C-alpha cells in the first residue's frame, strides 16, 4: 500500500510493521488530517491514503462513531474529533515538562505580547510542541506540531547544541536543507560554529532565515544534568525585532527558560556572554 502523502508533498512516516492493518490505516488518516490542518473530503482521504474507497469510508464511519473524527456538514468534509483533544489534554496533564512549559510559554507571551513556541528535538528535526499566540494584531502564525530542519531556526540550533562534534556533523550532513527564504545556514562547519556559540552564550537569534520579515529569539531549557532538552523561543515580526528591543527579548526568553529549567531541576546557570 502506498504511504499517504502529507500536505506539501511529503510522504507520511512509515507505519511500524505488525499490528492490524485497519489500525495502521486509522493512524495514517489521523496523521494526514493533523498535518493538513483543515477538513478533508472523502475523495481527498482516499487519494492521500491510497486505499480502496470502500475501505476508506468504512474507516471514516468507525472513527466518526468513536468521536475521533467529526463531520463538517456544510462543507462535506471530516476533521479531527474532540475526543482526540480530550486525550491530548489527559496526556498533557500527566507530563510535567509539558505542563510547566505551557505555563512558561503563556507567561512569556503575556510579558512580551509576541508568539511563543516550545520546541523539542524529534526524529532529528525541530518539533514545535506548544505555542501561545501573540497578542498583537500583526503577529507570526505558526502551528504546533510543525517539524523543520534544525538549521532553519534559532531553537533548532540549541536543541542539538550538546551533541558531540562527530554526532553533530553526521546529523547536519544528513538533515540540513535550504530554508524557504534561502537565508538559513547550510554550510556544516559554519553551522556548527553558530551552534556552539549559541550554547555558550545561552541564546540564539535568527532573522529572515525561515520566514520573510520574521525573526526568532530562543533560549535552551535544561534538565537536571544541564543538558538542553527543549527550547523556548519568541517569534517576532521584523518591524518589532529592532536593535533597541532585541536585548529585552533576549533577557525575557532567557529568564523564562531559566525558570523552567530550574523547575526541572537544572543546576544554577553561570554568567552568560553576549553575542
List the helices and strands and how they pair.
Elements: H1 21-36, E1 40-41, H2 42-49, H3 53-65, E2 69-72, E3 77-80, H4 82-94, H5 96-112, E4 115-122, E5 125-132, E6 147-148, H6 154-159, H7 165-175, H8 188-201, E7 204-207, E8 214-222, E9 228-237, H9 246-263
Antiparallel strand pairs: 1-3, 2-3, 4-5, 4-9, 5-6, 7-8, 8-9
Helix pairs in contact: 2-3, 5-9
3D architecture notes:
The chain is an alpha+beta fold. The protein contains 9 helices and 9 strands. The strands form 2 sheets. The protein has a 6-stranded antiparallel sheet with strand order 6-5-4-9-8-7. Strands 1-3-2 form a 3-stranded antiparallel sheet. The longest helix has 18 residues. The relative contact order is 0.10. The C terminus is likely disordered.
Alpha carbon gyration radius = 20 Å
Just give the CATH class of the largest domain.
Alpha Beta
Q: CATH H level of the largest domain: which superfamily?
A: GAF domain
Separation of termini?
Answer: 51 Å
Q: In the CATH scheme, what's the topology name of the largest domain?
A: Beta-Lactamase
The number of distinct β-strands equals 9
Strand content: 15-25%
Number of helices: 9
Major β-sheet annotation: 6 strands, antiparallel
What general form does the structure show?
A: globular
Q: Going across the major beta sheet, what is the strand order?
A: 6-5-4-9-8-7
Mean pLDDT: 85
* Low-confidence sequence ranges: 12-17, 270-275
What is the domain total for the residues? 2
Instruction: Describe the oligomeric state of these chains in a short phrase.
Output: single chain
Note the run of SSEs as H and E. Answer: HEHHEEHHEEEHHHEEEH
Instruction: Tell me the structural class.
Output: alpha+beta
Overall helicity: 40-55%
What is the correct CATH architecture of the largest domain?
2-Layer Sandwich
Amino acid at each position: 500500500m502506498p504511504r499517504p502523502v502529507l500536505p506539501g508533498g511529503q510522504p507520511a512516516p512509515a507505519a511500524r510493521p505488525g499490528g492490524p492493518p485497519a489500525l495502521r490505516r486509522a493512524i495514517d488518516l489521523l496523521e494526514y488530517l493533523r498535518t493538513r490542518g483543515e477538513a478533508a473530503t472523502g475523495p481527498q482521504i482516499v487519494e492521500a491514503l491510497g486505499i480502496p474507497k470502500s475501505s476508506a469510508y468504512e474507516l471514516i464511519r468507525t472513527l466518526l462513531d468513536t468521536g475521533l473524527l467529526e463531520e463538517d456538514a456544510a462543507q462535506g468534509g471530516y476533521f479531527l474529533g474532540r475526543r482526540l483533544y480530550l486525550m491530548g489534554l489527559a496526556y498533557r496533564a500527566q507530563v510535567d515538562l509539558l505542563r510547566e512549559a505551557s505555563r512558561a510559554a503563556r507567561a512569556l507571551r503575556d510579558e512580551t505580547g509576541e508568539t511563543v513556541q516550545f520546541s523539542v528535538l524529534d526524529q532529528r528535526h525541530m518539533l514545535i510542541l506548544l505555542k501561545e499566540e501573540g497578542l498583537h494584531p500583526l503577529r507570526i502564525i505558526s502551528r504546533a506540531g510543525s517539524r523543520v530542519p534544525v538549521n532553519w531556526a534559532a531553537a533548532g540550533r540549541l536543541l542539538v547544541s550538546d551533541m558531540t562534534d562527530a554526532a553533530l556533523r553526521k546529523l547536519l550532513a544528513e538533515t540540513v536543507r535550504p530554508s524557504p527564504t534561502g537565508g538559513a545556514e547550510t554550510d556544516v562547519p559554519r553551522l556548527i560554529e553558530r551552534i556552539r556559540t549559541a550554547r555558550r552564550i545561552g541564546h540564539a537569534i535568527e532573522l529572515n532565515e525561515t520566514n520573510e520579515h520574521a525573526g526568532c529569539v530562543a533560549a535552551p531549557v535544561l534538565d537536571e544534568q544541564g543538558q538542553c532538552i527543549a527550547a523556548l523561543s519568541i517569534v517576532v515580526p521584523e518591524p518589532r525585532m529592532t536593535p533597541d528591543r532585541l536585548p529585552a527579548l533576549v533577557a525575557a526568553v532567557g529568564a523564562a527558560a531559566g525558570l523552567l529549567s530550574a523547575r526541572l531541576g537544572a543546576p544554577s546557570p553561570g554568567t552568560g556572554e553576549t553575542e
